[in-house]
Structures are given as structure tokens and as C-alpha cells.
Amino acid sequence: MTIDRIVMLFAGCVIMLSVALSQLHHVYWLFLTVFVGLNLAQASLTGFCPLVKILKAFGARPGQAFS
Asked: Which of 8, 23, 38, 62 is the most buried (most CB within 10 A)?
């Protein structure tokens, strides 16, 4: 699995988890969804994503999404 796909999978899982937690515990868990959305937007504009640096350190291979 490439870095691009891991980042998309991780973001999707965190969003689904935060929505579920907002329904089960407290609505403030939706701020996690906002954080993930802002981080994705920031990464698309600047090209910097902290998760990518971590994944590269663990040896994940780079790739192009949807190729």
C-alpha cells in the first residue's frame, strides 16, 4: 500500500471514528473531524503532511493516488 492510500485510509477512519464518538459521547468530538478536514486542505495547498513524514520513516513506499 502506498503512502497516498494510507493517508486517505487514516483520514477516513479518523473522521468515521469522530462522528461515531460524537453520537455516543459528546458533540465536541466533531472538532476532530474539523481538524482532519483542515489538515487535508492544508496538505493539498502546501504539500506538507505530518503523517507522510512518519510513514516515510517507517519505510512506506510513495505513490500516486488513484493510479
From this structure: 8
- Three-class DSSP category at 23: helix
Tell me the pLDDT tens digit for each residue of 6-29: 999 999 999 999 999 999 999 999
- 29: number of CA atoms within 13 Å, CB side? 14
Q: For cell 485510509, what's the residue?
A: 9
Cβ atoms < 10 Å from Cβ of 3 = 20
Share of the chain above pLDDT 70, in %: 96
Could you tell me the residue ranges of all domains in the chain? Answer: 3-57
